[in-house]
Design a protein that fits this description.
The complex is a heterodimer of chains A (about 150) and B (about 400).
Chain A (H helix, E strand, L loop, with lengths): L1 H20 L9 H12 L2 H4 L3 H38 L12 H8 L3 H21 L2 H10 L1
Chain B lengths: L1 H13 L6 H17 L3 H36 L6 H32 L2 H11 L10 H7 L27 E6 L19 E6 L8 E14 L2 E13 L3 E2 L3 E9 L3 E13 L2 E12 L4 E8 L2 E4 L4 E6 L1 E12 L2 E11 L8 E15 L2 E15 L15 E12 L2
Antiparallel strand pairs in B: 1-3, 1-16, 2-3, 2-16, 3-4, 4-5, 4-6, 6-7, 7-8, 8-9, 8-10, 9-12, 10-11, 12-13, 13-14, 14-15, 15-16
The chains are: A mainly alpha (about 150), B alpha+beta (about 400).
Chain lengths: ~150, ~400
């Protein structure tokens, strides 16, 4: 009975936390999951790839992938701050006489397209490089991690 | 489910990873500023409609990005994917950005047509001081401002034993049913020694009991990058008597330095047959490709219970552990150190000696570690109490079990 009571309390707390943490609004940016897929593998490469030299090469590739995700997040954070700075400059009546550039508005939602394209091109190149270092079996095992 | 919920809640509370929160706050702030700053109802409605269109443009953009994410994931999971597969994903995003730009141009035009320059300036002035609207992720804010980057800890499972830190990475959960985990390192109290898994203790010098069987199961969870909480909440003595034992709770904060970690741990046992017990202490651990060394110092104290208060029994415990990975999946370790189980008695100094081994295997997204240990908890008694032999080979403990690790989110 006591165990059942504990289980009930834990389930209630879990349900409450899920309720509080539930996502509202548009979906999150997919870069988070792309980065998580890379970082999830970092600590497990040596268990999958028995050749230490190849294992080190694969690890380096995934470290770079994780760094790319961070660089993209940073680009997003910077573009938001840039949008804020532009808006701040327009907080006087005189500055509002000229129309605002839609590009400033776009910065609130996404970093400059060229920056995103360059980072994604590097991501794709790294993913292809990882395949050259991994056998299909090793690749599938690491795939299963996340 | 509980741990997933807890991880989600922590991420929501800290704002980390919640990349829609800033933009949602921005849109809410815009609506509020328009409502308060524009007196004319028809112009106000027009401006609010423009904000709704902006919100819709954002939602559409994110939906498209979801498709992009699914496209990349499909390519990532295909061993035979080519550069063309990735290009196909990015081409779609590029086309969508052109659409987004057009939508935003219309939104901007409608917004500016609805409001006077003075009203727009007022709204801009009201919106910019709202920090919640401009911080995409608190962990990135200082870096984006040009300040130095905090070193990030990868949030994945740590497979090789000698490369593990003192705490679990954030959002990593461990179901503990095995000995030799960091949470039970040095969990030696005046009246009992605690480790995970099933254990057989032969001759307890402290209690005088001949042989005892225990089984203990629990969980550890990386709550933050360098902070973990854990508990062995299903502890049972199996023999000679079957009973529920005291629950062990451990909270650890680590500080990652160059090549080694320092950790502060606070552990306590709930009221069992010996009352409450506390064990604050500190640990240090060096990490290496094949070799790791860990040492700690703890002051275990048994304080009795509220109903049956007792004079605190204080000990001191300084365990050391050396771990060697023969291959990445298999490790051996040796435990020793120094323990003084009761500072109130003159002859309680002990040098323990133990050995252990573990095998790690990756099963899909989970890591399973099988461990076993053999320990002489009172191997050497330098002061030879009551004329006892200096070496106590008859008093030993054997433990075995398995521990599973996985990511909560």
């Amino acid at each position: 009975m006591r165990t059942f009571g504990h289980a009930l309390v834990i389930t209630t707390i879990a349900a409450a936390l899920v309720g509080c943490g539930g996502q509202k609004g548009p979906p999150r940016h997919p870069v988070g999951e792309m980065t998580a897929r890379a970082t999830a593998k970092l600590g497990l490469i040596e268990l999958v790839v028995s050749d230490p030299v190849r294992a080190e090469g694969v690890r380096e590739v995934y470290v770079q992938m994780a760094a790319l995700g961070h660089a993209f997040d940073l680009a997003r954070a910077r573009s938001i701050l840039e949008a804020r700075s532009s808006l701040e400059k327009r907080s006087t009546e005189g500055a509002q006489t000229a129309p605002a550039s839609p590009a400033e508005l776009e910065l609130m939602l996404a970093p400059p397209l060229e920056r995103g394209k360059a980072l994604f091109a590097r991501y794709a190149a790294l993913m292809l490089e990882a395949r050259t270092l991994l056998t299909e079996d090793e690749f599938e095992k690491l795939n299963g991690v996340r | 489910m509980f741990w997933v919920a807890l991880a989600t809640a922590i991420m929501m509370l800290s704002g980390e990873g919640d990349d829609t929160r800033a933009i949602a706050a921005l849109i809410a702030g815009l609506r509020e500023a328009i409502t308060q700053g524009v007196a004319d109802s028809s112009r106000r409605a027009e401006a609010i409609r423009a904000v709704s269109e902006f919100e819709q443009a954002f939602a559409t953009h994110r939906q498209e990005l979801q498709s992009f994410g699914a496209c990349v994931q499909a390519a990532d999971r295909n061993y035979r994917a080519t550069s063309a597969d990735y290009t196909a994903c990015s081409d779609r995003v590029e086309a969508q950005r052109v659409t987004l730009r057009h939508s935003l141009a219309t939104v901007q035009r409608d917004y500016e047509a609805a409001l006077t320059p003075s009203e727009r300036a007022q709204i801009a002035e009201a919106l910019t001081p709202r920090p919640e609207a401009w911080v995409l992720d608190p962990t990135l804010a200082t870096e984006a401002d040009g300040a130095g980057a905090e070193p990030h800890r990868p949030r994945g499972l740590e497979g090789v034993a000698t490369q593990r830190h003192l705490t679990l990475p954030r959002n990593v959960v461990s179901i503990v049913y095995g000995p030799l985990t960091p949470a039970t390192f040095g969990q030696r109290y005046p009246s009992k020694i605690i480790d995970g898994g099933t254990s057989y203790a032969h001759q307890n010098l402290t209690t005088g009991v001949g042989a005892q069987w225990f089984t203990r199961l629990g969980v550890r969870f990386g709550l933050f990058d360098d902070f973990e909480a854990g508990a062995l909440f299903l502890p049972f003595e199996l023999a000679p008597d079957f009973r529920f034992d005291a629950v062990l709770v451990a909270l650890t904060q680590q500080f990652r330095l160059n090549g080694f970690d320092i950790g502060a741990r606070f552990s306590f046992q709930t009221r069992g047959d010996i009352g409450w017990a506390l064990a604050p202490g500190a640990m240090v651990r060096t990490l290496g490709r094949r070799f790791a060394f860990q040492a700690g110092i703890f002051t275990p104290t048994e304080v009795g219970s509220f109903k049956e208060p007792q004079a605190p029994v204080v000990g001191i415990n300084a365990p050391v552990r050396a771990t060697f990975n023969i291959v990445p999946a298999f490790f051996l370790l040796a435990d020793s150190g120094f323990a003084y189980d009761n500072l109130g008695q003159a002859d309680r100094a002990t040098v323990p000696l133990g050995f252990g081994a573990g095998y790690v295997l990756l099963a899909g997204s989970r890591l399973i570690e099988l461990t076993t240990s053999f320990t002489w908890d009172h191997w050497l008694l330098p002061s030879r109490p009551n004329g006892a032999s200096a070496f106590q080979f008859e008093t030993f403990r054997v433990a075995f079990g398995g521990t599973m690790y996985f990511q909560a989110l």
